[in-house]
Amino acid sequence: MTISETLKSLDSYLADRSYIEGYQPSQADVTILGVLKSAPTSATPNILRWYNHIQSYKPDERKKFTQKSLSSGVSKIISSCDKAAAPADDDDDVDLFGSDDEEDAEAERLKEERLKAYAEKKTKKPAVIAKSSIVLDVKPWDDETDMKAMETQVRTIVIDGLVWGASKLVPVGYGINKLQIMCVVEDDKVSVDDLVEKIQEYEDYVQSVDIAAFNKI
């Protein structure tokens, strides 16, 4: 398979995908980006769309991408590049595995080095832990509710992946204050809905709980 055919296969693969593997950028995208020496042409619009998107991330941001293994389909697309065949004219701007006059053995060596480097990086670099910063509005029943006791009860909630932060009282009218409290949660460990339900279980103090702010970290 020529480089032109290989690019067409990759372009077809990306026709209904935003990323090489999964639904968010990963080191698989970085790996494929590394074997593209320059920007694709309009002859492969799906590769060009993907390429421009991944290039929009700064190098430091790409280092934080999660680790994902290349699927067999993507690996076959890379392996199918036949350096013995000269590329078509529309391949001049893209060189997958080095210059056009490299021999097959050299191209294979470079490909193996890149795949080996990716595998080593995958085993050594820890996965990025997805976290969210949340601000909760905890509302009391009336102005006679003991707000310090309310906060104490809220902070007794202990969940793996939950860290409580700063808090303050915010006036809502008629002498009533609400407790506004921050927390950071690990997305894979803490369900925000479950956290809200746990707070609302303190019925002697809590009338309702609202999410005032929710930001991914």
Alpha carbon gyration radius? 26 Å
Average pLDDT: 82
N-to-C span: 43 Å
Which sequence of SSEs, written as H and E, runs from N to C?
HHHHHHEHEEHE
Which structural class matches the secondary elements?
A: alpha+beta
* Count of separate DSSP helical elements: 8
Number of strands: 4
Give unreliable regions as ranges: 81-94, 96-102
Basic shape: elongated
Sequence of strands across the biggest β-sheet = 2-3-1-4
**Proportion of β residues?**
15-25%
Protein name: Elongation factor 1-beta
Domain Elongation factor 1 beta central acidic region eukaryote: 96-122
Pfam families: EF-1_beta_acid (PF10587), EF1_GNE (PF00736)
InterPro entries: eEF-1beta-like_sf (IPR036219), EF-1_beta_acid_region_euk (IPR018940), EF1B_bsu/dsu (IPR049720), EF1B_bsu/dsu_GNE (IPR014038), Glutathione-S-Trfase_C_sf (IPR036282), Transl_elong_EF1B/ribsomal_bS6 (IPR014717), Transl_elong_EF1B_B/D_CS (IPR001326)
Concise overview:
The chain is α+β, with helices and mostly antiparallel strands.
Helix and strand arrangement:
Layout: H1 3-13, H2 27-35, H3 45-55, H4 59-63, H5 72-79, H6 104-124, E1 131-140, H7 147-155, E2 162-173, E3 176-186, H8 192-200, E4 206-216
Antiparallel strand pairs: 1-3, 1-4, 2-3
Keywords: Elongation factor, Protein biosynthesis
Protein name: Elongation factor 1-beta
Pfam family, one: EF-1_beta_acid
